[in-house]
Write a structure and sequence with these properties.
Elements (H helix, E strand, L loop, with lengths): L2 H10 L7 H4 L5 E6 L4 E4 L21 E4 L5 E4 L3 E7 L2 E4 H11 L5
Length: about 110
């Protein structure tokens, strides 16, 4: 996982509900899942504050492969995927997009 991959995923999921700005009203929080350990990491800024979108800089060292000298995350373990946490459960971007469609009343 790196910044380029996050940008690519945001482009892919534009308009589907699989992005933070499209599912926030349903209480989805941007998060990452380490598929190797099944640990979920809510997205955070480097200073530890919760982030309203996917940010790599707040991830713990155990999932970070490379950082710049200033501490910015360059890359993470290949087992890390971006998605969302809601009510203690992890949702992939695809699952969150499906939930947004199913849980949002149709416009009249």
């Amino acid at each position: 996982m790196d910044e380029q991959r996050l940008r690519q995923e945001n482009e892919t999921f534009t308009g589907t509900g699989g992005r933070s700005q499209e599912n926030r009203e349903l209480r989805f929080r941007p998060a990452f899942l380490d598929c190797a350990t099944m640990a979920v990491y809510v997205s955070r800024f480097a200073d530890g504050r919760p982030a309203p979108f996917h940010v790599l800089d707040g991830l713990p060292d155990e999932v970070v492969i490379d950082r710049t000298l200033s501490g910015r995350v360059v890359s993470t373990k290949s087992t890390l995927i971006a998605g969302f946490e809601r009510g203690g459960y992890f949702f992939t971007r695809t699952a969150a997009a499906r939930a947004v469609v199913q849980w949002t009343p149709a416009a009249s």
